[in-house]
């Protein structure tokens, strides 16, 4: 633990947080300056405030150079929302009068979820955030940052984030940083990076960050309409996560392109150059992979490892998924990158068998080459089946959700895997947003796959994903077309009540009830059914009360008979919200191994 000894900072990954931070700070964040150090290195008087988080601004931060980074920052929990109705792509083919298989085999899509006129970007995000907090048994006070990634803009000034703040009203928590981030489908990833940076910064006050990705992807009648979809995903971000953002392993590419954009703010429909968009996507993939690979190899060289990074170093790879067929092509594209980077590939046997004719090609000359595409797609088929296909459940059955698309792939992978299969693995992730912005990064999965572990809880929380997809209402293509027409006609109307019925919504879904004459939107929530709780911290306090007579940081005295709130309890029996150290607090799960010994070592010299 970072507060045991000065050398712990190097062991835990380096970085400058003071030694009293780490798990002690994380678990007593209602007053994150306990115990603070004065300028002489001693400990100042304990903070007397139990509720004023403004004291966090005085915390020595990352610039202090005296401790360790928060450990294993990443995704702690993940919630998914998608509409309760869908259209079959096979039926849509017949309705549109196109050849059989154009949408199913050509695009790789089975079904497409869609929203009626009484769902908008605000309602989608309200639903998924409330679902995250309720099912995770979190406190609204436990959230210190909330950022929304979306390209579904219904107001040129007011952010979706500000609408979500009504969920915090009863808690009184208005100290929540973050705002909306927009660039096509990339905004969710930018928000995730911002959230992780906040947790690792001097601004962090010990609370969680929530990242929300949400969009409604709709297109005008024509070839692009089958690539639509809708949904929202909320992620809880903090330290000691089961899915860790690997530090230093991130490749980004950005450039100016008009491949997909939305210049008409009165319409939900984009302007799309389909062929250019695919070329931009593949070019960004090439360049992000090259940067990521170079950084990975650089880290390995510093550790004395001399070998190239290849696709074999990802156990799984997830992609932003406009349509599933593009993802299959993208896996082949990464294999092409590996093939060209390998000094002397064996083209007689094995993975590269029969690919010798492509040895001299240049990446920039192959974006429209069907010959190269087919050859490497065929060569990478097994890789695709093992590393990527399990992640395409939501994409194939719900469609392109825009900003949540790649994170829907992550949810799909988790929902169909066991903790044992995932433990210790590296998941590669490619995020793309037209215009364009793209990044490749990786998530390192926790080694702890034991029942009840954070990883096990995360996977269990998503296990109902296939059943939820099965529970949706199937809508005929002609009815789907009529609903799209209604959205088109009412998208920017004032003083109206949108079409739609509560019967077409899942329990617990927020929906738009009215837009008044001043374009102010009003929402209501369909009564929820009893939620299936996964509880990020559902469990018991693992901090025993009989640790000896210690002075509580707030000035209280604890004896062997138990603290003020858990008096008489045994180790493991006190409710988490009644933790003895900081009184009522958001549920956080069991105290990590070694915390007790660390606090004893820290406190006993101060309070003999």
Automatic annotation (TrEMBL):
Subunit structure: Homodimer.
Record protein name field: Hydroxymethylglutaryl-CoA synthase
Binding site for CoA: 223, 277, 325, 329
Catalysed reaction equations from the record: acetoacetyl-CoA + acetyl-CoA + H2O = (3S)-3-hydroxy-3-methylglutaryl-CoA + CoA + H(+)
Biological or metabolic pathway of the protein: Metabolic intermediate biosynthesis; (R)-mevalonate biosynthesis; (R)-mevalonate from acetyl-CoA: step 2/3
GO biological process, one term: cholesterol biosynthetic process
Residue runs in coiled coils: none
Active site: 151 (proton donor/acceptor), 185 (acyl-thioester intermediate), 320 (proton donor/acceptor)
Main location: mitochondrion
Subcellular location: Mitochondrion
Domain Hydroxymethylglutaryl-coenzyme A synthase C-terminal residues, every copy: 243-526
Gene3D superfamilies linked to this entry: 3.40.47.10
Family: Belongs to the thiolase-like superfamily. HMG-CoA synthase family.
Source species, domain of life: Eukaryota
Domain Hydroxymethylglutaryl-coenzyme A synthase N-terminal span(s) in chain numbering: 69-242
Biological function: Catalyzes the condensation of acetyl-CoA with acetoacetyl-CoA to form HMG-CoA. Catalyzes the first irreversible step in ketogenesis, condensing acetyl-CoA to acetoacetyl-CoA to form HMG-CoA, which is converted by HMG-CoA reductase (HMGCR) into mevalonate.
Database matches in Pfam families: HMG_CoA_synt_C, HMG_CoA_synt_N
The protein's Enzyme Commission number: 2.3.3.10
Alphabetical keyword list: Acetylation, Cholesterol biosynthesis, Cholesterol metabolism, Lipid biosynthesis, Lipid metabolism, Mitochondrion, Phosphoprotein, Steroid biosynthesis, Steroid metabolism, Sterol biosynthesis, Sterol metabolism, Transferase, Transit peptide
GO CC terms in record: mitochondrion
Major enzyme class: transferase
GO molecular function terms attached to this record: hydroxymethylglutaryl-CoA synthase activity
């Amino acid at each position: 633990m970072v507060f045991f000894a000065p050398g712990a900072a190097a062991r835990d990954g380096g970085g400058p947080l003071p030694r009293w931070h780490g798990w002690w700070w994380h678990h007593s964040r209602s007053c994150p300056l306990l115990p603070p150090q004065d300028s002489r290195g001693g400990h100042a008087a304990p903070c007397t405030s139990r509720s004023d988080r403004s004291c966090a601004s005085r915390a020595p931060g990352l610039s202090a150079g005296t401790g360790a980074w928060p450990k294993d920052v990443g995704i702690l929990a993940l919630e998914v929302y998608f509409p309760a109705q869908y259209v079959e792509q096979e039926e849509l083919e017949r309705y549109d009068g196109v050849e059989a298989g154009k949408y199913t085999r050509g695009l790789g899509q089975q079904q497409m979820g869609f929203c009626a006129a009484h769902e908008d970007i605000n309602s989608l995000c309200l639903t998924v955030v409330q679902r995250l907090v309720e099912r995770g048994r979190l406190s609204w006070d436990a959230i210190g940052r909330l950022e929304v990634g979306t390209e579904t803009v219904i107001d040129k000034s007011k952010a979706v984030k500000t609408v979500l703040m009504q969920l915090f009203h009863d808690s009184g928590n208005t100290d929540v940083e973050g705002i909306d981030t927009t660039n096509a489908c990339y905004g969710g990833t930018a928000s995730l990076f911002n959230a992780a940076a906040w947790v690792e910064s001097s601004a962090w006050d010990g609370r969680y960050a929530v990242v929300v990705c949400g969009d409604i992807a709709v297109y005008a009648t024509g070839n692009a309409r089958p690539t639509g979809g809708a949904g929202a995903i909320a992620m809880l971000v903090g330290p000691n996560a089961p899915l860790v953002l690997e530090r230093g392993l991130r490749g980004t590419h950005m450039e100016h392109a008009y491949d997909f954009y939305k210049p008409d703010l009165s319409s939900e429909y984009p302007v799309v150059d389909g062929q250019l968009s695919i070329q931009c996507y593949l070019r960004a993939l090439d360049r992000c992979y090259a940067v990521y690979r170079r950084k990975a190899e650089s880290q390995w060289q510093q550790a004395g490892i001399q070998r190239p990074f290849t696709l074999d170093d990802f156990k799984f790879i997830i992609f932003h998924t406009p349509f599933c067929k593009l993802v299959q092509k993208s896996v082949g594209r990464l294999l092409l990158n590996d093939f060209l980077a390998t000094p002397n590939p064996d083209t007689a046997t094995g993975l590269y068998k029969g690919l010798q004719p492509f040895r001299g090609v240049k990446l920039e000359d192959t974006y429209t080459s069907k010959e190269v595409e087919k050859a490497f797609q065929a060569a990478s088929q097994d890789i695709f089946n093992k590393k990527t296909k399990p992640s395409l459940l939501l994409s194939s059955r719900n469609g392109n959700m825009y900003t949540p698309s790649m994170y829907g792939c992550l949810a799909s992978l988790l929902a169909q895997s066991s903790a044992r299969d995932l433990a210790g693995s590296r998941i590669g992730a490619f995020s793309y947003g037209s215009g364009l912005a793209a990044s490749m990064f990786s998530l390192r999965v926790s080694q702890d796959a034991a029942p009840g572990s954070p990883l096990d809880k995360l996977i269990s929380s998503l296990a109902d994903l296939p059943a939820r997809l099965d529970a949706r209402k199937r809508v005929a293509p002609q009815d789907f077309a009529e609903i799209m027409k209604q959205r088109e006609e009412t998208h920017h109307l004032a003083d109206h009540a949108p079409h739609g019925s509560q019967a077409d919504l899942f329990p617990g879904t927020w929906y738009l009830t009215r837009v008044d004459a001043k374009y102010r939107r009003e929402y209501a929530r369909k009564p929820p059914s009893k939620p299936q709780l996964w509880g990020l911290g559902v469990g018991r306090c693992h901090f025993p009360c009989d640790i000896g007579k210690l002075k509580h940081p707030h000035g209280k005295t604890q004896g062997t008979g138990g603290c003020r709130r858990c008096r008489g309890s045994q180790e493991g029996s006190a409710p988490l919200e009644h933790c003895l150290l900081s009184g009522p607090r958001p549920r956080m799960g069991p105290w990590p191994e070694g915390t007790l010994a660390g606090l004893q070592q820290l406190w006993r010299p101060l309070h003999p």
